[in-house]
Amino acid sequence: MNKKKLLPLIALVLVVTLSGCAFVSNFVGRLTGSLFGKGYTITQYDDYGNLVFTVHGDKVTMDCQLDEYGEVTSYIDITIDGDSWKHVGSTLVFAQKGVDIITDFQLPEDMESTGSSTGLMAVDRKINHYANLIGKDYVVLVSSQNGTPIGLFQGDDCYVEIPADLPKTTLINIDGKMVYVHRANVDIIPAELFGE
After folding, report:
1. Which is more confident, 80 or 130?
2. What would the pLDDT profile of 88-120 be if each residue is shown by its tens digit?
């Protein structure tokens, strides 16, 4: 078989094989519809974890704001269905339609690891890195900047990324749906620690 014909076939097989991978799902999700895409609920919280307000939008994007020297500032520019919103300071959670934050929960006071270690921490870190790329069963706890729990997300296939182009923001792809958490404490905990 000709190498020129074989290369596209291999690429197609790779795309189909990796399409179940959380990393690929996240990459595709970020490509579609500008940065965020369609259908987000944005919730703002104060330092004590109290809900301030909720905004719904079909097309939502978020960009960092640069100062006069081209350096990233703490401000972000949010565009919601064509309207502009500049924000700095408080906690924002952007949740795509289809993923909901759980606010009625009880955190266990004591958790015990049931995982198995290879005995080599460097190997364990590499295994965890690749498990994140494939997708892992996580509980994502979102707390206010002073540590008050706000809510949690859970999914069977979660991928976590710190976007370089968005200051103080964590991106979590939960079962194919995007959640952006801006200016918050975020704990990404394996579900087995919760006994799940």
Report:
1. 80
2. 888 999 999 988 888 887 776 766 666 666 655
- How far is 91 from 142, CA to CA, in rounded Å? 10
C-beta separation of 170 from 162 below 8 A: yes
- Pair type for strands 37-45 and 51-66: antiparallel
Give me 66's structure tokens. Answer: 């640069």
Amino acid letter for position 99: V
In the chain, where the domains are located: 16-194
In sequence order, the β-bridge partners of residue 93 are 43, 181
Give the closest residue to 131 by CA, choosing from 98, 90, 160.
160
CA dist., res. 130 & res. 124, Å (int): 10
In this structure, the number of other CB atoms found within 10 A of the CB of residue 183 comes to 20
Q: Is 139 helix (H, G, I), strand (E, B) or coil?
A: strand
Higher pLDDT, 39 or 38: 39
Q: What is the Cα–Cα distance from 94 to 180, expressed in whole angstroms?
A: 5
Span 114-139, mean pLDDT? 59
Please say whether the dihedral angle defined by the alpha carbons of residues 127, 130, 134 and 140, taken in this order, is positive or negative: positive
β-bridge partners, 182: 92, 169
Q: 61 with 79: CB under 8 angstroms? A: yes
Instruction: Return the minimum-mean-pLDDT range out of 81-90, 112-121, 146-155.
Output: 112-121
